[in-house]
Request: fold
Amino acid sequence: MNERQLIARVIAGDRLAGRTLYDTHAPRVYSLAYRLSGDAEKAREVTQDTFIRAFSRLAQFRGDAAFSTWLHRIVVTVVSNARRSEVRIAREVALDEAHSIEMTAPEAEPDLKESIARAVDNLSEAYRTTLILHDIEGYTHAEIASMLGVPEGTCKSRLSAARAQLREQLAAFKE
Reply:
């Protein structure tokens, strides 16, 4: 059974087909969610939220792109919404609690792997997402443009800028 037939069966209410569709795509959805969020628990939540959204909107899937591309666009949206929510909550620290926030001195330079992870985390959301989708997940610029709803040229320039920022932040490791 091909993926279109599987999707049609899920829309018709076939729970086994839904489980098959989930089992087929969940590992890559989780992988992308983990790379974008950097946290296993958040990645599990994002994976769950992604499939809840996908199954509730499955009838809206037109098939213009691959089903996995459509799912990954949902992952990006869910992670982005979660990050915005976290930032909003972080800003809402009460003034009387603000005095208890301590500043710590940066530790000695960790190894390269930790520095790379930190440098990627420091990228803007748009740059980080584009970098992960292209360099780690292996999507083409056209697929990323479709997922993010931006022109292909924007994806290319974001990737170039992300790589330039990483080179700058990791220059200390260059010999």
About this structure: The chain has a mean pLDDT of 84.
